[in-house]
Amino acid sequence: MSLVRTESPIVRRTLIGIAMFYLILFIFLPLFIVFATALEKGIAYYFNSLTDVDTVAAIKLTVITALIAVPLNLVFGVAASWAIAKFDFRGKNILLTLIDVPLSVSPVISGLVFVLLFGLQGLFGPWLRDHGWRIIFAPPAIIIATIFVTFPMVARELIPVMKAQGNDEEEAAITLGASSWKTFWYITLPNIKWGLLYGVILCNARAMGEFGAVSVVSGHIRGLTNTLPLQIEILYNDYNFTAAFAAASLLAFLALFTLVIKSLVEFRFRAELKAVRKERAH
Amino acid sequence: MSIEVKNIIKTFDTFNALNDVSLKVETGELIALLGPSGSGKTTLLRIIAGLESADSGEILFYGKDASDKKIKDRNVGFVFQHYALFRHMTVFDNIAFGLRVQAKRVRLSDDKIKAKVKDLLSLVQLDWVGDRYPSQLSGGQRQRIALARALAIEPKVLLLDEPFGSLDAQVRKELRQWLRRFHDELQITSLFVTHDQEEALEVADRVVVMNKGKVEQIGTPQEVYHKPASVFVLNFLGNVNIFQGRVIDGKLYLGNNQAKLPQDAKSNIKSANLYIRPHQFDISRTSQGDNAIKATVKFLNLAGSSVKIDLSAESGNILQVEITQQEFSKLQLIKGESVFVCPKDITFCEYEI
Amino acid sequence: MLLLKQKSTLPGFHLALGYTVFYLSLIVLIPLSMLFIKTSTISFAQFWGIVTAPRTLAAYRLSFGAAFIASFINVFFGFLIAWVLARYSFPGKKIVDALIDFPFALPTAVAGIALTTLYSSNGLLGQFLYKIGIQSAYSWTGIVLALIFIGLPFIVRTIEPVLQEIDPEIEDAASSLGAGRLQIFMRVIFPAVLPSVITGFSLAFARTIGEYGSVVFIAGNMPGKTEIAPLLIITKLEQFDYSGATAIALVMLIVSFILLAITNFAQWWASKRIGMN
To answer: What pTM was computed for the model?
Structure first.
């Protein structure tokens, strides 16, 4: 960078210093606390608390929820971003707004609407009860609420990626005789694979970590309708801090893993984006 | 394969891109669609390819209506402006793509595909880049690969959208000549879009000059340059000097000069604009007649195959004149000199009643 | 279906759009409409009574107020962080850049217990704060601190790309015309990023209004004082007061939508001004 374009070194260092201080305060310390508290009572205790019956059940339910929610949201994400990024149509903005809904609505409200739908006093409540189906206060509600809260993740990642890549390659493939499906499979998918990967990882992290919405619909029955975040809450409220943080550390690891993948994807994608932009600029 | 475009109209929202466009391309011709941005030339190309559909009108391939045919049934090779090479495939896979996606019953064996790709790489003189990725190639190389890829499916028609638009001037010139020779060898009916008039005039068999969604003129490069059908074509292709004159008693007065009216002029015209190209003047130190214009030499450009001179006429107009190096060495003009400029010929006339 | 503005050669439009609309209806539209349907079963007077009850108003004041303060503080520091990340290089920058998203990727419950432990009276930071008289847990302060954590990535990630996009040549031009650093900042750089600052603020604000998991542990949850609106909704649900819960939720939803509209508008306005595609 030329000298003209930056501030004096003193100003720069001060600004960096302030920024780092703020970040240490608000990001590093909480991260540190999670692991420090989890390991307070030693490694043995750490692993013990992770193999507690209720905690294991919570982990199981969390994983199952993610295994259902993420693929469903993946298919939606691909379909939605294909329609939005590659075509021009009326009502696109409404669609985009609707996709953003779960991100701007309180998780508690997200859970509430499903109670209103499927709870005993809800719209389908009596019908469900008559047929012996339990949704609210049972795993199905947890899964549905999780789907609601995390479905934008994949779409939001893919839309900018697909938009940036434009339609040229797909059009070229079609002029060369490829069918619709072949075009999508051989041309589009490989191009979006990094964005897709990150979208899935992010969706998964959010699905496993969802708290507010799941808390409302769950029923909090230990060993049965508790996901890992809910289990953490229970342990904490029982003053079992170390165990709570041990469970929390699992999710913290997941969060860190998500960030690693994100950096990787951005690294790959940024170079591509630059190249595409350079070509277009002519 | 011959192509006929009949009365094509195409509108985007409120923008009228093509307004009743018709033209005919004979088998084996190399046609340039020339015009400024927004003239509709790329839109027309894409409609012929099937990438866009017209609001009304017909496209005929070999006399048969192709408007309803899907893109892959039209057997058209399209070369995109920004190449549109598949970035995650090697050059080899890019070229082989069209051959690999064919239906099983018509698909060539892997060996035959390999041989064909090799042939095509030779054809475009890039035998050694097969294993590379598009990002590792230069712009000119990518362009040739895009061409090879389009040719792999043995199209009956080749369509190129501003093929040399994003390349350096020198690479552009080289590829231009290369394309001309290439076409002479393969003889595929080809259309290419360009906004560069030099390119169109140098490469094409015929030029279609377009402006604001309409065809201004169709003709050989010679025709459109020397016999332009409208002021637009005149201005778009090369430099031109404009003389505005009034007609009194059958004589044309241009400033201090008199001129004879061209023979095709009607008797009731009041004023005329004469358009004369730089090479249609003679310069001498003595007046050669009534239509000689007195002017001062302002600027001499001697670097080039001909000499370009800017002169300032008595009336204040700037004249652009071009003479051969030979003529200049006889005259030995210098800056500031006062000379006489005499038009030998007129390219175009515009009349007002 | 003639929704398409232009007939396109790319395949699968109707299939993709159809599935998208179907999924959205099922997952978003129908559930959300429940809020309106349920509210319509009570009279407006009842509705008004619920949402203006002292306890409710206190909860709104807390949720909206704390969110506003936290987002406001985040604007300044978030801008600073975005600036430092976009323009300077320093050791460990890549790690720092990646960690900005940590609050976004971390489950809210984990954030909640971590922050509470940090700021409670015997916590790592809490002990110092309490000594100087700041009660950082079970108070407004604690809630604001938690919301700063949650909202930070939204602001940084919205401003950073815009800062990076600024053409260095423009600054060179301003310099060559005699402008000093501060002037260049105030007159050239800041106006260009202002729309993104507004968008970032709106996003952080919208996100933190309804925040539950990271706040409910540190909040104290005393009705009328430190009870956040989402908690009030849950409490009402546990008492089977569906109407009450729904009414409170509906108000929050409407505010969220208004904020979303403002965000979209700010983005549209920004792209018009800067002429981005």
So the answer is: 0.80
